[in-house]
Design goal:
single chain; about 150 residues
Length: about 150
């Protein structure tokens, strides 16, 4: 019986042995994506908001359809919010909500829209945004924050 011999000296690796280089290439690609995302997030955590925004924008340009793209877009808004640029943050959070409606980040995004309105002293819009979470997502893990801000207005 014939068993194929491979350059590595291995025997009987079967017809799927060719998948290994592709799998490792994909693994390296995903590791590079995660590394790029984490570098942008690290800049946010260091308070380097402008640099973090640039890195997240570069990430999105290189990975427009990546599973981390909604998060990267969200963190651009977080950077603007943390820097006190509320109108720009609001636009970014609204775009995230429009672009990724139904994504896991949707409730967090809705919350940040409400908190951004609060920072801008638009309390009617704050109430409207936070009540959407309260009424349609009663199990939201950050409901204490929602309730805290609803009591403040």
């Amino acid at each position: 019986m014939y068993e194929p011999q491979f350059a590595s000296g291995g025997r009987g690796l079967g017809c799927h042995a060719w998948l290994r280089p592709q799998a490792s290439a994909e693994k390296r690609r995903l590791e590079a994506i995660n590394k790029q995302y984490k570098a942008a997030l690290a800049e946010y955590n260091r308070g380097r908001h402008e640099n973090s925004i640039v890195l997240f924008e570069e990430f999105l340009k290189a990975n427009p359809d990546c599973e981390l793209s909604p998060n990267a877009d969200y963190w651009i808004g977080e950077n603007d919010y943390s820097a006190g640029n509320y109108p720009k943050a609001l636009r970014q959070f609204q775009e995230v909500g429009d672009r990724y409606h139904g994504h896991d980040k949707a409730c967090d995004d809705q919350l940040k829209i409400g908190l951004t309105y609060f920072q801008m002293q638009d309390y009617e819009s704050t109430d409207n945004e936070l009540m959407v979470i309260k009424n349609y997502n009663p199990g939201y893990p950050q409901m204490k924050i929602v309730d805290k801000y609803l009591k403040r207005i």
